[in-house]
Amino acid sequence: MVDLDSLPATRDAYDAVATRYAQHFTDTLRDRPLERALLAAFAESVHAGGEGEVADLGCGPGHITAHLRRLGLRAFGIDASPAMIALAQEANPELRFEVGSMAALDIADGALGGVLSRSSIIHIPPQDLPTVVAEFARVLAPGGQLLISCYATDDPSISKQSFDHSVMTAYRWSPDHLAGVLRDVGVREIARVLFQPKATDKRQFDELHLLAAKN
């Protein structure tokens, strides 16, 4: 496993905004019934596959990890930012959180029943996306579930588009391209959902949620 050259900059950027980020985003599911339904479907699929542990990769302040636990999953969180992990542990002392990299997880091969990557790939440089996705596949057990979300490109024939982000440069991905990267590492797409932006949303991009399973 080789870690990413971009990791230190990402870690430092999120350390700097961790408290403000947590205050702004910890209640984001309240007005997102469709995403809550997708998370519930993800949880049901993990339960059906054998109740393995679930890693929330790029967990930030831990609010989605806590939601997964309320859905009955044995969820834990990993984030590159020590400041984010400290906030997650403070808010959810009963849960497990670890500092780590999505490209070099300290998790055994095939150990997990599920992986959640909620907007955590948006800062991955395009050349490093296959490495990160291969790591997701490595830690999943056969039949393990993956729910990955990101912003989608405007034109599906374009594999990626960069955009200005309040923290650091970010990317949105073609749904077909992302599904193909998953397929290359033995993870098959089950379903995809595109959320249309609301008129009041800061970014007028479609949001992709892709549910997949390891072969």
Task: Summarize it.
By secondary structure, the chain is of the alpha/beta class. It has six helices and nine strands, in the order H-H-E-H-E-H-E-E-H-E-E-E-H-E-E. Helix 1 (7-25) packs parallel to helix 4.
Describe the structure.
The chain is α/β, with parallel strands linked by helices. It has one domain: Vaccinia Virus protein VP39 (Rossmann fold, 3-Layer(aba) Sandwich), CATH 3.40.50.150. The protein is built from six helices and nine strands. It has a seven-stranded mixed sheet, sandwiched between helices. The chain has a two-stranded antiparallel ribbon with strand order 6-7. Helix 5 links the parallel strand 4 and strand 5. Helix 1 runs parallel beside helix 4. The two termini are 21 Å apart. The model has no long low-confidence stretch (mean pLDDT 94). Its EC number is 2.1.-.-. This is Class I SAM-dependent methyltransferase. One of its GO terms (molecular function) is methyltransferase activity.
